[in-house]
Design goal:
The complex is a heterotrimer of chains A (326), B (302) and C (305). With 326 residues, chain A is of the alpha/beta class. Chain A contains 13 helices and eleven strands. In chain A, α7 links the parallel β6 and β7. Classes of the chains: A alpha/beta (326), B mainly alpha (302), C mainly alpha (305).
C-alpha cells in the first residue's frame, strides 16, 4: 500500500545521503596549490572574504583571472570587514577585502595566531555628498557646514547651516552606524571624539543599503546625504552633487579625476590583506600580482577609482620576494 | 461536508421573521468578510509576483540559457546565476535529508512515547523556544559550531546543517499537530488488537499524520531556502566560479546573490536581481507542487 | 496514551524508541550550542559595558564616540521588535483566522486545492524579496497615498509590520485550519441539528474547539515575527528610537545584529560584541514569551473522547 512507497522513499533518501557522504570522505582536500609540469598552469583554491565594498573589485579580478588560470578556484564572500578580519586572523581565509585599515585589536588577534600578512592598497572610494536634483540652493558646503549638519545636536533647518539658505527642515539620509562609510565620514568631518571631535547625531534616516538612500534623497528637495561615489554616478538624473571645500571656500566636485588626484577631500582607500603563507603559494602569489596589475584597468567597471600608481608599484615590490620563493 | 450539513442546516425554520432576517444578514456579511480576508493574502502574493516580474522578466527572457548557465560577473549584462542556483538546490536537498527524519522522529517521541514528566516538559519548552530564534542567531551558531569548531568552513555541509537546525523546530511543531489530530480511537483500536505502541505509530498514526507533516516540512524548507542571514554569517561566497563536488566545498545561494545584486549601484544589477528572484520563486513553486502532489495522494479525512 | 497499550515493547522497538528520544533531545543540544556561542562574547561585552545601562538605557548609539563611550541601551531595540511583533499580528491574525475558517468550513475542495498551495507559496517567498516589496510597493503605493507623503517616512514600522504580517499569515492560517478540521464532525452536526447557521457553528463551536491549535499557531507566528531579520531591516529601517509612531523608521534587535555582522566594525571590540548581547537578549525574550504562552495554551486545550 502507501506504506511501501513511503518506506521506499525513505530508503531512497537514506541511500542518497550515504552517497553524498561517501563523496565527501572520498574527495581529497586540494587546497595546496602547485604548479604543474607544463609552463605556468596553476591550480589551487583562494578563499577571499571581507568588505562588501571591496568585494566587487575582487570579483572582477577573480573573473578575469579565471580566464587565464581556469584551475585556480577563487571564491569571494561578503561577511563585512569586521567579520572578515575575524576569519582572516583565524587563518580561515587567504585574502581579506577591507574598506579600512586593520585595527589594533585585529592586529593583536592576528599576532596571537601567528598570522603574518601584507597590506596592499588597491583603490579609492570617493564619498559623494548629495542632495536631490530638485534642490535649488545647494552648491558648495565647507567641512564646518558638513559638521554642523551631521553632529549631535546639529542644525535642523537649512538656514542654520547658512543664513542664505531657506528655513526648511533638513532631511538627512546617511549610512547606518555599522557602515565603513559612516565611520570614515565621522572621522574626517567630525574628528576623533577622543581628541575633541564631535559626536554624530542619531536622529537621521539610516540605511545599510546605499540604493535606498538614493531613493530617499531623490524624493525630497531639502534632502542631504552621503554615500559611495558609484551610487551617485549611477543615479545622476535624480541627484545633485555638492562641492566640498575642505579649507576656504572653493569647493571641489567629486569626479573620477578629482578623486584619483586627491583633490577631492573625501575619499577613502580600499585595501586587501593577504597571508604571507598564502603568498608563498604560487597560485595565490600570481593572483595578487594579477590583482595589482589589472585593478587600474578594471576598477572603473565597478564604480571605484584607481589608487595612485605608486601604491600599485609599491605593492608589486612588496610582493616580489614571495613570488621568487614559490 | 457542505452537501451533508447544508441539508441539516435548518436555517429556514425560523421562530420570528426579524430575527431570521437579521441572522441571515449577519451570515452573509460574515461570509463576505471571510472571503475578503482570504483574498487579501492572495492579492498580496499576486502583487508581489507582478512587481518582480515587471522588473526582471525582460532580463530573464533576453537570454535565459545564458542567465542560468553563466557564473557571476562584474558586468551586469554578463552575470548569471549558475553557481547560486545549483548551490541552493544542493542546500535544499541536503537540509531536507537532515531535518525531516530527525524532526519527525522527535515529534513522534514527544507525542506518542514521552512520559509526562519534567524532562519532557523541558524538551518541549526548548523546542518551542527554538522556533522563535531569529535566523541570524542560527547563523552565528552555524559559524561558531559547524564552520569553526567542527572545521567545516563555509561549505555546503555547514550551510545545510545550519538550515536544518533552523528548520527543525518548525517541522517538529507541525508534525506534532498532525499526529495529535489523529483520533485516539484509531490508536485504541490498534491496542485492542494487541499492537505495541510502536506498531500503532508506524502503521496507523504516522501514515495518517504524514500529509500534515509534509505540509509543515514544505513550509519550513521553503523558508530555509529563501533565508539570507544565516548563510551570510557563515560566510558562503557570492562569487564562485565552480560547482561543488564535495560536501566540504563552498557553495553560493540564490538569496545571497539577490541581496548582493540589489545593493550594487548599477541599475542593471537590480534587474538581474529581479530576474534571479523569478528563478527562485519558480524553484519554490516546483517544491510546493511536489508537496501538493504528495499530500493529495495520501490525505485521509476523518 | 491509553492503559490498554502493551507497555512492554518488543526488543527491536526499544532501540527505535531510544532513537526517537535522541532526536527529541538533539534539540536541547542545539540550544546549548546557541547559548554557548552567544554567551562567550556577551560576557566580553559586559566586561566593558554596564549591564544596568544596557537594560535601562533608552538610547542605542554605538557610533557615538569610540567603543567605551558608545550608548548601549537596549530598550529602543526591544521597542522596535515589539512594534513589529504586535503590528504583524494585527495584520496576520485576523486575516489568518478568517482564511482558516473559510478553508475549513466554507470552501469547497476545489477552492481549497487552489488556496492552500497559494498560502504555502506566500509563506515561502524569500524574506529579502518581501522586504524589497515593502520598500518599493507597500510604502510608496499603499501607505504614502493614504496617509500622506510627509507623514510616512521611506522606512517605517507599518510597512515592516505588513510585510511580516503577510509572512506569518500562512502559518496562522495553515495550523489553525488543521486544528479546525480536526474538530470532529459530530460536534458540528450536533450544532446544526440544534438550528445553527454555518456562521454560528464556525464561530461558536469550531473556533473555540480549535482554540489551542489557533493559540499555538499565534505563538509560532509571533516568534517568527520577532525573529524576522531581513524584511524588517530593509523595510523598517535602521534607526533605533523609543517611539510608538508606526510611520517612522525604527530598528529591531534582529536588524541591529544583521547590520553589525555585515558591517565594517572590527571584531573583538565592544561595538561588535554588542551583537552577541543582543542575540542573547532575543533568545531570553523568546524564552520568556514561550513559557508564558505555554501556560495560556494549556488552559485552552480540550480533550475529546
Amino acid at each position: 500500500m502507501t506504506l511501501r512507497t513511503r518506506r521506499g522513499g525513505w530508503l531512497l533518501g537514506l541511500t542518497l545521503a550515504i552517497a553524498l557522504a561517501t563523496t565527501a570522505c572520498g574527495g581529497t582536500d586540494d587546497n595546496g596549490g602547485g604548479a604543474t609540469g607544463e609552463g605556468a598552469a596553476l591550480s589551487g583554491k583562494i578563499a577571499i572574504d571581507g568588505s562588501s565594498t571591496v568585494a566587487p573589485i575582487s570579483e572582477a579580478i577573480a573573473e578575469e583571472f579565471k580566464k587565464e588560470q581556469p584551475n585556480v578556484e577563487a571564491t569571494v564572500g561578503t561577511s563585512g570587514t569586521g567579520g572578515g578580519f575575524t576569519k582572516f586572523c583565524a587563518g580561515e581565509t587567504d585574502l581579506q577585502d577591507a574598506s579600512r585599515a586593520i585595527s589594533d585589536e585585529e592586529k593583536q588577534a592576528c599576532a596571537a595566531k601567528g598570522i603574518k600578512y601584507q597590506e596592499f592598497r588597491v583603490g579609492l572610494d570617493g564619498l559623494a555628498v548629495v542632495t536631490s536634483a530638485k534642490n535649488q540652493f545647494l552648491d558648495t558646503l565647507t567641512f564646518e557646514q558638513l559638521a554642523r549638519i551631521f553632529e549631535d545636536g546639529g542644525a535642523t533647518t537649512w538656514n542654520q547651516v547658512d543664513p542664505s539658505f531657506p528655513n526648511e527642515k533638513i532631511a538627512i539620509f546617511a549610512p547606518d552606524t555599522e557602515s565603513g562609510t559612516y565611520d570614515f565620514f565621522n572621522e574626517k568631518v567630525l574628528g576623533d571624539p577622543d581628541e575633541g571631535g564631535k559626536k554624530p547625531r542619531n536622529d537621521y534616516t539610516a540605511s545599510s543599503d546605499d540604493n535606498t538612500l538614493v531613493q530617499g534623497i531623490e524624493g525630497q528637495a531639502n534632502s542631504w546625504g552621503y554615500f559611495g561615489f558609484a551610487y551617485y554616478q549611477n543615479n545622476k538624473e535624480g541627484l545633485k552633487d555638492i562641492k566640498i571645500a575642505e579649507k576656504g571656500t572653493t569647493g571641489i566636485e567629486p569626479t573620477a579625476e578629482t578623486i584619483e588626484s586627491g583633490d577631492y577631500p573625501l575619499s577613502r582607500p580600499l585595501f586587501i590583506y593577504v597571508k604571507e603563507d598564502s603568498l608563498s603559494q604560487p597560485h595565490v602569489g600570481q593572483f595578487v600580482k594579477f590583482y595589482l596589475e589589472q585593478t587600474p584597468q578594471l576598477i572603473a567597471d565597478v564604480g571605484y577609482v584607481p589608487a595612485p600608481q605608486e601604491d600599485y608599484t609599491q605593492g608589486l615590490a612588496k610582493l616580489q620576494p614571495f613570488l621568487a620563493t614559490s | 461536508m457542505t452537501a451533508t450539513t447544508e441539508a441539516f442546516a435548518p436555517s429556514r425554520l425560523r421562530r420570528g421573521a426579524t430575527r431570521g432576517r437579521a441572522r441571515i444578514l449577519v451570515d452573509v456579511a460574515f461570509s463576505a468578510l471571510l472571503f475578503t480576508g482570504t483574498i487579501v493574502g492572495v492579492v498580496a502574493l499576486a502583487t508581489l509576483i507582478w512587481t518582480i516580474f515587471d522588473n526582471g522578466w525582460a532580463r530573464l527572457t533576453a537570454d535565459p540559457a545564458a542567465f542560468l548557465t553563466s557564473y557571476v560577473s562584474r558586468l551586469p549584462a554578463r552575470a548569471g546565476i549558475k553557481a547560486a542556483l545549483v548551490g541552493s538546490a544542493y542546500l535544499m536537498v541536503l537540509t531536507a535529508l537532515f531535518c525531516f527524519p530527525i524532526g519527525v522522529g522527535a515529534a513522534i517521541y514527544l507525542e506518542e512515547f514521552a512520559p509526562r514528566n519534567r524532562v519532557t516538559n523541558f524538551v518541549e519548552a526548548n523546542i518551542a523556544n527554538l522556533a522563535g530564534v531569529p535566523s541570524v542567531v542560527y547563523g552565528l551558531l552555524g559559524l561558531g559550531i559547524f564552520a569553526r569548531f567542527l572545521r567545516m568552513g563555509p561549505s555546503l555541509l555547514a550551510g545545510a546543517l545550519t538550515l536544518a537546525v533552523m528548520s527543525l523546530p518548525v517541522i517538529i511543531v507541525a508534525a506534532r499537530e498532525s499526529i495529535r489530530a489523529v483520533p485516539d480511537s484509531i490508536r485504541q483500536g490498534a491496542y485492542a488488537l494487541g499492537a505495541t505502541r510502536w506498531q500503532t505509530v508506524r502503521r496507523q498514526v504516522l501514515p495518517a499524520a504524514m500529509p500534515g507533516t509534509l505540509t509543515g516540512t514544505i513550509l519550513a524548507l521553503s523558508r530555509a531556502i529563501g533565508e539570507t542571514a544565516p548563510l551570510l554569517v557563515i560566510g558562503l561566497p557570492i562569487v564562485i566560479f565552480s560547482l561543488p563536488d564535495d560536501l566540504r566545498d563552498p557553495v553560493s545561494a540564490l538569496p545571497l546573490l539577490i541581496f548582493e545584486w540589489t545593493s550594487r549601484p548599477q541599475a542593471a544589477f537590480a534587474e538581474a536581481a529581479a530576474a534571479a528572484s523569478i528563478v527562485l520563486l519558480a524553484l519554490l513553486l516546483a517544491m510546493n507542487a511536489v508537496a501538493i502532489f504528495l499530500r493529495n495522494r495520501y490525505t485521509i479525512r476523518w | 496514551m491509553s492503559d490498554i497499550s502493551r507497555r512492554t515493547a518488543r526488543t527491536g522497538e526499544r532501540v527505535i524508541i531510544q532513537t526517537l528520544f535522541a532526536c527529541a533531545v538533539l534539540s536541547v543540544a542545539v540550544t546549548v550550542g546557541i547559548v554557548a556561542v552567544l554567551l562567550v562574547d556577551t560576557v566580553e561585552f559586559f566586561r566593558e559595558s554596564s549591564l544596568a545601562d544596557f537594560l535601562t538605557g533608552t538610547v542605542w548609539a554605538p557610533g557615538q564616540g569610540a567603543g567605551e563611550d558608545g550608548l548601549y541601551g537596549v530598550l529602543p531595540l526591544i521597542n522596535g521588535t515589539l512594534m513589529i511583533g504586535v503590528g504583524s499580528l494585527v495584520v496576520g491574525l485576523p486575516l489568518g483566522v478568517l482564511t482558516a475558517i473559510y478553508l475549513s468550513e466554507y470552501a469547497n475542495p476545489r477552492v481549497r486545492g487552489v488556496l492552500k498551495p497559494t498560502l504555502e507559496i506566500l509563506a515561502g517567498i524569500p524574506t529579502v524579496i518581501v522586504g524589497y516589496f515593502a520598500l518599493q510597493f507597500i510604502t510608496p503605493t499603499l501607505l504614502r497615498p493614504i496617509f500622506g507623503e510627509d507623514r510616512v517616512f521611506i522606512f517605517n514600522a507599518a510597512s515592516g509590520s505588513i510585510a511580516v504580517g503577510l509572512m506569518i499569515l500562512p502559518i496562522i492560517a495553515s495550523i489553525s485550519e488543521d486544528a479546525m478540521r480536526s474538530v470532529p464532525v459530530s460536534l458540528r452536526e450536533a450544532a446544526y441539528g440544534l438550528g445553527s447557521t454555518k456562521r454560528q457553528v464556525s464561530l461558536r463551536v469550531v473556533v473555540p474547539a480549535a482554540l489551542s491549535g489557533i493559540a499555538a499557531s499565534v505563538i509560532l507566528a509571533f516568534s517568527r515575527a520577532v525573529g524576522e531579520t531581513m524584511a524588517v531591516t530593509i523595510a523598517a529601517g535602521n534607526s533605533p528610537k523609543m517611539t510608538l509612531d508606526f510611520f517612522t523608521s525604527i530598528q529591531t534587535l534582529t536588524a541591529s545584529i544583521a547590520q553589525t555582522v555585515r558591517g565594517e566594525v572590527a571584531a573583538g571590540t565592544v561595538r561588535y560584541n554588542a551583537l552577541f548581547a543582543l542575540g542573547l537578549t532575543l533568545f531570553v525574550l523568546t524564552l520568556v514569551m514561550n513559557l508564558v504562552s505555554a501556560r495560556i495554551v494549556r488552559r485552552f486545550r480540550q480533550v475529546y473522547s
